[in-house]
Here is the input.
Amino acid sequence: MNDTRQLIRVGHSPDPDDAFMFFALAKDRIPTGEYRFEHELVDIETLNRRAFSGELELTAVSVHAYAHLSDQYVLCNSGASMGDRYGPMLVARSKRPLADFSRATIAVPGTLTTAFLVLRMCLGPDFQHVVVPFDEILDVVAAGSYEGTTIDAGLIIHEGQLTYGQQDLELIVDTGQWWFDETGLPLPLGANALRKDLGPETICEVHRLLLASIRYALEHREEALSYALGFGRGLNHAKADQFVEMYVNDWTLDFGPRGRKAVAELLTRGHRAGVIPELIEPEFVGVPGS
Here is the structure.
């Protein structure tokens, strides 16, 4: 029998926090009414670039990438990944002053990631970068080269923030702490976004289901965490729980006024730094005047 419900294609990263967040939708733990969800797990930089074609109705995006997508997508108030005094990290084989890396060659997980945007603001525009799959960056930094190019440091996201020490790498700067020192705000790394052409009714209902999925995971933590562990490269149960707690929490339930302010500040400073071409006013689902 054909399923006549409206298809919502969902894109998110294959990492523990996103898996935890979408567990209830992926495993049919909550009723979804007239909508059915089809999940695609792809790295965040690929999702950022796919969003330009608008093929996914609901997708995770870097806040940096959203600056190029605001004509097609509206940000969800739920589903954010916020770094509250922590975030993507610059790591290297030996401890050196941050200024030493301003002209270094750095492995990065993608030029549309928020991690890359903040590193540009932190280090300036003169460092060289090589795009490397996020789950290979630690190995590349430890080896000191990638496809014949010497690598001085790496910008790590996801669970690498907890595991870089296992490869005897040194922390140079935590961009989430750097951002907080600069602004007093949490660092809005990623968000979920809904395609505007779905229309107000569908946008509101899918947003409600996303929030319900996040609430279910937080209320059934062990069940959702067991599922998320399948996406935690090199993480044991305790580390996976720690990582999920870092990025699925009260900020994920609702950006709130301070979180939305942080998004606006990031986009403003990114534009001021010359990384984001146009000054973008972020638009959020269900927030008047956004």
Q: What stands out?
A: The radius of gyration is 18 Å.
